[in-house]
Amino acid sequence: MSTSQPMYQAGPAPRGEIPFKALLPWVYGVLLTAAEILTALMYIPAGLALHFSILILLILQAALEAGKPRHVLYQALALAPLTRIMSLTLPLGSFPLMWWYAITSLPLLAAAWAAAALCGFKVTDLGLVRGRPGLQLLVALSGLPLGLLEYLILKPQPLVAGLDWHRLWLPALILLICTGFMEELVFRGLIMRAAAAAAGPRFALYYMSFIFAVLHITHRSVLDVFFVFAVALFFGWAVQKDRSILGVTLAHGLTNITLYLIWPNLL
User: Fold this and answer.
1) What whole-number distance in Å separates Cα of residue 32 and Cα of residue 26?
2) 15 burial level (CB within 10 Å; 0-12, 13-18, 19+)
3) Per-residue pLDDT at 226
4) Nearest to 83 by CA among 212, 219, 244, 189
5) Where do the domains of the chain lie?
6) What pLDDT score does 93 carry?
7) Helices (H), the chain
8) Mind listing the pLDDT tens digit for each residue in 180-207?
């Protein structure tokens, strides 16, 4: 498996620098948390306004940090508020719920590729490599028990009634591509890669997991937020171990397929 060297090597912080700049990524994390809590509490205009403000601040922050390691982190992190903005503002009401995933994923994919290009990342930097087949298969299969555990936490209604294959194959494909692949590309591929370039792999693992978990606050389950944080740590570890998002993409897809299509129709 070929891997590329990081564009930036994270070194020790300059002496005396505890600074606000070192804490600034976590400040944005707190702001994202506040925006998601507002949205979950149904103060949607306030939550949307805060997400827009965070997006603008991140774009400006990236410009101010041009040429520095944190520049790529702020560029990539802008996808987090953008994800929620698109889900709240796109005119989705006339479409079946299942198609919401497909519609919102298209502009997000374009934004992710644009951000990756601006960061100077190649496809190998984003984890778009095969990896070791045995490890990737084991990671992929973890999606089955993870889907059951999250179903027991959330108990969602099925997106499709019944287990007829003719009804399931298209929703399953949409969930695999538009949640599994897209979210892994954005979070474990782009954001974690950018965070590692900015401050090293350990920071990247915990920071990406925190941001990913925060964006599940709108499920209105504290237990689910902690569950998602743990899953994000596992997925992030797997990607750092083998530099591939293949296994976590399949695991993520299987988690959501069983969560929304299989278990609600069986239990």
Assistant:
1) 10
2) exposed
3) 98
4) 212
5) 20-266
6) 77
7) 20-40, 44-64, 70-77, 79-89, 97-119, 133-141, 143-154, 165-175, 182-183, 192-199, 201-214, 222-242, 246-257, 263-266
8) 999 999 999 999 999 999 999 999 999 9
